[in-house]
Prior knowledge:
The protein is α+β, with helices and mostly antiparallel strands. The chain has two domains: about 10-120, CATH 3.30.1330.10; about 125-275, Phosphoribosyl-aminoimidazole Synthetase, Chain A, domain 2, CATH 3.90.650. About 35% of the residues lie in helices and about 25% in strands. It has ten helices and nine strands. The strands form two sheets. The protein has a five-stranded antiparallel β-sheet. It has a four-stranded mixed β-sheet with strand order 1-4-2-3, covered by helices on one side. Strand 2, helix 3 and strand 3 (about 85-95) form a beta-alpha-beta unit. The chain starts with 7 loop residues before the first strand and ends with a strand.
Amino acid sequence: DTKKYKNPIMLSTTDGVGTKLMIAQELGIYDTVGIDLVAMSVNDLIVCGAAPQTFLDYIACGKIHEEVLHQLIKGVVEGCEQAECTLAGGETAEMPDVYGSDDFDLAGFAVGIVDRDKMLPRKKNIKKGDIILGLPSAGIHSNGLSLARKVIDKKDKAGRRELLKPTKIYVKELKKLIAKDNIEAAAHITGGGLTGNLIRTLPKTVKPVFDTTAWEVPEIFKKIQKNGGIDPVEMERVFNMGIGIAMVVKKNNVDDVLSFAKRSKIAIRVIGEIVNG
């Protein structure tokens, strides 16, 4: 679409949902991990400014269980609807020599398009004094599940179900925010936490500093930390701690972004600033 894109760049991503599959198996709940699968790829696209266009899935299993497969695909379809992209196809591979009869794995692939001059991050623009804004996460999302699974007891069904809450898909919100041309960088907060993910979008001369009192940490993280006796630094390295997307904005643009977000009913808050590295 040359009217929409003057100099289009195609970006692609691939990802899975890791240990979250094991929790889905334990609880017998399969209709949400498909949403996670889509989220992990499309969120990585949209933080580069690329609007997701198509998604494909790959399901590998020891034996095809029709109802489980139906639930998995149902989640993928829901995820694609949330991400405003097309489910272009997929592959289901039955491999009894590789997987147990109840075992399966998922992989997702997404393609997006962005105009070359709209690509993020814009590292040259990022300087000391810029402000970091955050969009809240829906919970643990799809990272840190190996650790969380060890410390949330199997008997704690409510806690285990909380771990299955799907990863939030930020495509609609970020499309609106990025279109205002006020965002210098954005990061999808996955493994590595806030600092580990945002720092990759910044020039080497600066670093992010977060005000961890600026948002309420969801209860699930408090429970994980308490049950496992986990060091706060390790918690911040492994988990999103309540922030799913972090964005860098010029100080003089912050009020515009916040007021636009309020009008658009997008939950957003100031969570830190950029300082000299």
